[in-house]
Amino acid sequence: FVTRLLRAAGGVGEEQLRCFRECLQEAMREHYKHHWFPLVPSKGSGYRCIRINHKMDPLIGKAAGMIGLSHERLFQLLPSELTLWVDPFEVSYRIGEDGSICVLYESPQPGGKAAKQLESRTSCKEEWRIGRSSPSKSYNMMTVSS
C-alpha cells in the first residue's frame, strides 16, 4: 500500500520501489515478530500501528533510507497524516485525522474461508488520489483494494 502511494506520487523508480517494498516488509516482519497474536488480533495493535503525523514512522523511514529517500522527500510524496493498522486478519488505514477508516485487506479468522482481498470501492482511494489531506468526517467503514 505504501509503495503504491509512492508510485502514485511519482519521482521514484520501479527498482527503488521494489527495494523499498522488500525493505519495509522485512522491517515489519522483524518489528512484529514478538507482537503478532492471531488468537487475540487486537493485542499489540498499537505497537503495529504505522503512523505519519508530522513525524515519519521509523519503519517507513528505515525502508526509505535504504533507497536514498530522506524524511523530507517522504513528507513530499506521502500524505502528511497517515495511519495504517496492521493486525492479524485485517489491514486498514486512515488518511487525515478526521478521515474515514478504509480496509485494505481482510481475511477470516482460523476455521473460516481462504483469505481474500476486499472488492474495490473508490471513496477512500479517490480521496488520496485527488490530493485531499483529510477525507470527509464520515466514520463509516469502507473497503478498498487495488
Automatic annotation (TrEMBL):
GO cellular component: cytoplasm; nucleus
Family classification: Belongs to the BTG family.
Species of provenance: Leucopsar rothschildi (Bali myna)
Gene Ontology BP, a term: negative regulation of cell population proliferation
Domain named Anti-proliferative protein: residues: 78-97
Protein name from the UniProt record: BTG1 protein
Pfam families in alphabetical order: BTG (PF07742)
